[in-house]
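User: I'm curious whether this sequence folds into something compact or stays loose and floppy. Could you predict its structure so I can see for myself?
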Amino acid sequence: MIPVIDGLQYANWSEKIFRQMRAGGVDAVHVTITYHETFRETVHVIERWNRWFERFPDLIFPGRTAADVQRAQDSARTAIFFGAQNPSCIEDDIGLIEVLHTLGLRFMQLTYNNQSLLASGCYETVDSGLTRMGRAVVTEMNRVGLVVDMSHSGERSTLDAIEHSTRPIAITHANLHSWHPTLRNKSDTLLRALGASGGFLGLSTYPHHLRNGSACTLQDWCDMAARAIDLVGAEQVGIGTDLCQDQPDSIVEWMRTGRWTKTVDYGEGHADAAGFPTMPHWFNDNRDFANLRAGLMVAGLGQAIVDGVMGGNWLRFFDVSFCPSHTDQTAKHVVGVLP
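Assistant: Here's the prediction. I'll summarize afterward.
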């Protein structure tokens, strides 16, 4: 059975949301567990997730390998894969990469909008590319099986990561800059390079990433998805909704501002972006994945391609990405679109 996989969510987790995942037939979700948190603070979040796994074992369980997606389908549960949207959790200690991978982390962004110790964020005026530490961290992430995520990174930094990484990287939640020119969306040039390297793109339903924002139509989004497939590859595009369900607006300040400034950073550069926007009517929560499937079919993508976008492509990416390098026989160009 073809899985349904979401490549990024940061919801205000609750039993309600876990049950909505099951109602929507969602087999696996990459969940953000940390933004600006330190290592110890990130461990506290993992402890909180462990309590949820204890309380709701009939709904969710921790995902570690691609095989856990099949286990989720077999047991009618949702596999939860941990990710970090900033490298703050490793502080300045490269050894914490392996520790966090052991604790379940499977994705880590090298930046969250700003310059980090590793790379430049997409909001920086100057993108200086991967730093010395950034190159060392990518090498270590490749070794342990931690996915390099460049969703909030600048273009040069992302191209550097593609070049330096021995495994395909991911942009887990973004759209096409040529479709909607926000700083977070990615250029056609970058997406072609991502595709040529075997990398992966998760398409977002978050209104700030959508043309016409919350008023974006499903057809427009699906037409954009078809264009993304042309740029990146039919087996290298999936969904990364960036769903922030039930979060209070105060969380936006933590996401964008953290501890790095005393003033509020409005993210997209406009005061009206201060709070969470209203989701488009065709995707409010995890029960709406069927709308995406139906829209992609109407857009004429075909059953096999739609199955891939809904989760089959993420599953293959998980399979080649999560294993340590000493057991991994893959490298770039493994996804099947390149010789």
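Summary: The mean pLDDT is 94. The domain at 33-42+86-321 is CATH 3.20.20.140 (TIM Barrel).
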